[in-house]
Amino acid sequence: MVVERQKIRARLAAIKPILAQRYPIDSLAFFGSVARNEATNTSDIDILVEFNKPIGFQFFSLAKDLEDYLQMPVDLVSRNGIKPAYFVAIEPDLIYV
């Protein structure tokens, strides 16, 4: 099964309002191989999330919720938790939902 960018975008857009009720999410985007339409059946999905307040250990619950919903491994990163150079590297691939 090849992971398709549009399907992931639609699934994330569908679940974002539900997640925003549980977590203080300002923005949600995906990047990496899925965003570039280069994903394979062994790919994970890289997701960038920005919060409007700290969430502590709930971050891990959010990652698990995303994995359960998307039925694939998720590599979740926080906008405030990544180095500026890393953000510059991923910014061209970001697809916001």
From TrEMBL:
Limits of the Polymerase nucleotidyl transferase domain: 14-84
Record carries keyword Nucleotidyltransferase: yes
Entry keywords, A to Z: ATP-binding, Magnesium, Metal-binding, Nucleotide-binding, Nucleotidyltransferase, Toxin-antitoxin system, Transferase
Domain of life per record: Bacteria
Cofactor: Mg(2+)
Entry's Gene Ontology molecular function annotations: ATP binding; metal ion binding; nucleotidyltransferase activity
Family: Belongs to the MntA antitoxin family.
Name of this chain's protein: Nucleotidyltransferase
Organism from which the protein derives: Arundinibacter roseus
